[in-house]
Specification:
The protein contains 15 helices and 17 strands. By secondary structure, the protein is of the alpha/beta class. The protein has a single domain, classed as 3-Layer(aba) Sandwich (Rossmann fold), CATH 3.40.50. Strands 2, 3, 4, 5, 10, 14, 15, 16 and 17 form a nine-stranded mixed β-sheet that branches. Strands 1, 6, 7, 8 and 9 form a five-stranded antiparallel β-sheet that branches. A three-stranded antiparallel β-sheet has the order 12-11-13. The radius of gyration is 21 Å and the shape is globular. The chain starts with a helix and ends in a 9-residue tail after the last strand. The relative contact order is 0.15.
């Protein structure tokens, strides 16, 4: 918070995406840079922590996709934003059972936070795993990019449209109220052209422009076209609605004001999957239909796996397995809120899970 106030004393206001970037990723004050936010006792929980069956299903999907690619002698899994390392750990446990795949495997973890990197390195001790600072560091393939709640934590811009006029959302420090506040400034021509180019303008209201996610999608598209492979992404998101404000902040599993405690709360936004899909297609990738997490995991056989896993277990253990499964699949929880996107280099279709 102090860093943001100091910046605002100098600049008076900063764009929303800059505010999010400082709040989450500043090396000293950023939320992800100084703490582990994931877990029951922390701020939020992710699918890999709910059930290791989630990681099992993704591992099986990766093996199937590798077979679809013709069983290349090398396959790289890149996990973007690996959190506390739970997903990578579960992938390794399952993938060891597929010896031919495992012998070809390299795993690269793309992580910005040194704090989270330390946690990951304690949990993951395997020569197959390396940490990378940039996606551009990858110089071979094929590559399977995996992102679980990666894109929703990237900075966005918000533009308010009213009667053909466009105003960008900024953050300022009110000396009168002694607190952070939002304000709108006339949007510059480049920003207006960008949101028009991505077909984000419909009715009046809030337009969200995922400026950083688009840059990552550009890099990923180039890598997939050059080295082959695919992108598998799980995130909060929507398919049909346009012009909505999805910016939110969470602390201790409860929603809080985005401006209330920057640097100490998670800030996310929902993914506009129609935009992502159109962008990837425009970059010459094939996008399978986007499904919810329930459909994806059920098509991969997660219920059958849970039934097999729970055999000969105590009533208490069985109840826990199915309770966790329900959280992953239930429409009121992660089952429908989370969407799954898969994009690959144009060639023969691969629709497992879709």
């Amino acid at each position: 918070m102090n860093k943001i106030i100091n910046i605002l004393k100098e600049r008076k206001s900063i764009p929303l995406d800059k505010f999010i970037d400082i709040s989450l990723y500043d090396k000293k004050y950023g939320y992800y840079m100084k703490k582990n936010p994931i877990g029951k006792k922390n701020d939020f929980i992710t699918s890999p922590l709910i059930s290791n069956l989630f990681g099992e299903m993704i591992a099986i999907w990766c093996v199937s996709f590798w077979e679809h690619l013709g069983k290349p002698s090398k396959i790289i899994i890149v996990e973007m934003g690996p959190g506390d390392g739970s997903l990578c750990s579960d992938l390794l446990i399952t993938l060891k059972n597929f010896k031919n795949f495992f012998s070809c495997l390299e795993i690269k973890l793309f992580e910005k936070s040194d704090k989270l990197k330390k946690i990951q390195k304690i949990k993951i001790r395997n020569k197959k795993v390396q940490w990378i600072k940039k996606i551009n560091d990858i110089k071979s393939g094929p590559i399977i990019f995996i992102g679980n709640e990666f894109f929703d934590a990237l900075p966005i811009k918000q533009v308010y449209k009213k009667r053909k006029k466009f105003f960008e959302k900024y953050v300022t420090f009110s000396k009168f109220n002694k607190k952070l506040e939002f304000l709108y400034k006339k949007a510059n021509k480049k920003l207006i052209l960008d949101i028009k180019k991505h077909n984000l303008i419909s009715n009046d209201g809030v337009i969200e422009y995922p400026i950083e996610a688009i840059e990552y999608l550009k890099i990923i598209s180039k890598k997939l076209k050059k080295y082959n492979g695919g992108l598998l992404s799980f995130d909060y998101g929507y398919l049909n609605k346009k012009n909505q404000d999805t910016l939110q902040s969470v602390q201790k599993h409860n929603y809080v004001d985005v401006l209330s405690n920057p640097g100490n709360t998670d800030i996310t936004s929902h993914i506009n999957y129609k935009l992502f899909s159109k962008f990837l297609i425009k970059n010459n990738l094939l996008v399978e239909k986007i499904v919810n997490q329930n459909e994806f995991l059920q098509k991969l056989g997660i219920v059958e796996r849970a039934n097999k896993f729970s055999k000969n277990k105590s009533f208490k253990k069985k109840a826990e397995i199915y309770y966790r499964l329900k959280r992953l699949l239930n429409y009121g929880e992660m089952g429908n809120l989370f969407k799954v996107l898969f994009a690959k280099k144009k060639s023969k279709r691969f629709s497992l899970g879709f």
